[in-house]
Design brief:
Blueprint (H helix, E strand, L loop, with lengths): L6 E6 L2 E9 L2 E6 L1 H6 L14 E3 L10 H4 L6 H11 L10 H8 L7 E4 L12 H12 L8 H8 L8 E6 L2 E6 L9 H14 L7 E4 L7 E5 L3 E2 L2 E2 L2 E3 H4 L9 E2 H11 L3 H18 L10 E5 L4 E4 L16 E2 L8 H11 L3 H15 L3
Parallel strand pairs: 13-16
Antiparallel strand pairs: 1-2, 1-5, 2-3, 3-4, 6-7, 7-9, 8-9, 10-11, 12-14, 14-15
Helix pairs in contact: 3-6, 9-10, 10-12, 11-12
Length: 365
Amino acid sequence: MIREVQSLRVLYNGREVGILSEVEGEIAFQYAERWVKSGFSLSPFSLPLSREIFISKKPVFQGLYGVFHDSLPDGWGELLISRMLAKQGVNYAGLSPLTKLALVSAGGLGGLTYHPSQADDSPVDYRLDELAAQAAGILDDGGADADLDKIFRLGGSSGGARPKAHIADGGDEWIVKFPCRIDPPDAGLSEFEANRAAERCGIAVNEYRLFPSSLCSGYFGAKRFDRTPDGRVHTVSLSALLETTHRLPNLDYMHLFQVISAISVRRGADLREAYRRMCFNVLYGNKDDHGKNFAFLYDERLRGYVLSPAFDLTATPHKAEHEMTVLGQGNPTERDLRAIARELKLPEAFCSAALQKFRAVLGLR
């Protein structure tokens, strides 16, 4: 039975970060006093470290700040939880944002957890081919025989269009993707090859592999960088930092560079890494480069934010333009890549060497 909640404790690796409360139709957040003394800002632009009571006035995230909205399912995950709750006679869209967070609790992406929990955290057995078949049925508006509870526990906090499962393998946690409606059966192999190309280009790609299948060439898996043997890692997307939805193509790569300049504790290295990723996306044809496909991690050792490893790298021939423009260009050219480098005052030798390497790796003239 789903219970509407008015208040949630926000925790990070067992430490209390603060309280989210519904107050007169608005959602307030306040850091815990101890967290203010020894913690860090969850979202540097919107939630500076203080005992102030913060209330978001932007409707874009249903009254939540973006960093908390990042914890909620999106795309595939939202479809799953909506279908699962509908079978119980519950309209997911009508639930309050705090109740939605309670349903995710510790299962969301990133490092934050929400209590009291209404999530089912019991372990689940799985077979990837079986999950892929059930996911395909759900996407085709069928899936009447699908075990929605089980599939949700495996992938209910996911974002993006492709069905996903969050699994443990060899002591590590992975996100495994299955094809969606518009994908060929070998989409997993294609994404594997895209990541291999990016790695050869010198990009800091998240650890990846192909999980075996008897139905196709394999399922693409990415090791979770928000989970480590030492605990969870606080993660916040570019869109959340800027309090804007990724569903509207309203960001430019310059926004990414500006955020890096403002919050990264390894500014120079992250600016160069972001430049390489931008060039790869343009030259490889990854136009699904929206603000939720870039993220920042809080590095406990460095005591500050750093650019996360690269993820969601794949060719998207069906998209007309890039989600993030380059100096306003939706279909940028190498000239635009060089122009933004000049704006950023990146060394010309670095940019030329990067572009030359990308052309060689990708077989471009």
